[in-house]
Amino acid sequence: MRIFQKMEGDVNCVVWDASLVLAKYLETMCQTKPEFLSGLRVLELGSGLGVVGLTAATLGAQVTLTDLPEALPLLRLNLSENKSKIASMGGYAIAESLVWGDKNSEIHKQEFDMIVLADCVYYEDALLPLIETLQCLNHTLKQKPTIYLTQELRDSEIQKKLWNDFYEKLNEYFYIEKIPEEQQHVNYRSPDILLLKIIKK
Fold first, then answer.
1. Which pTM value belongs to this model?
2. For all residues of the chain together, what is the average pLDDT?
3. How far is CA 167 from the centre of its chain?
4. Which positions carry the signal peptide feature in this UniProt record (predicted)?
5. How many domains does the chain have?
6. CATH number of the domain to which 83 belongs
7. Of 3, 30, 45, 69, which has the fewest Cβ atoms less than 10 A away?
């Protein structure tokens, strides 16, 4: 897979370690269960460069990658670079704009089997909109999608508090299961990166 990055820019311009952990976990699961992603409708939140969503698409999933409007040009470039590989594996990918907290988004009217997001808890003002978006996506669905989330646990007190606040709020509405390191890819796991499986209560 080919991924373009920017040397300067915001959080959506580089590949984060947490996205590699989640992408490799999806690969590992597909090696164990080939049908794990095949044909599934997958939504990626905060796609950034698209590593997780594009990986899912190369594993046979039908993926909608989403991010802020300003992130779409680079995201769509990466999608275009990997289009032939995705098609050869029976997958599909499209990139769309989604602003967290926007309850009128057309994305909320679609059905998804799985939601993935990597290292999305970073800015305080995005915390509640992200929770709202996860709730909205679950309210409109007949079957609750499985959510896979990775997050790097950072050392700064601000980031620690932000993650704790997010986790506490998430725990009010969702069942949360921590996936142990031994179930993750041997070369793509870290005690500093949480991998969670989440389902709406």
1. 0.92
2. 91
3. 16
4. none
5. 1
6. 3.40.50.150
7. 69
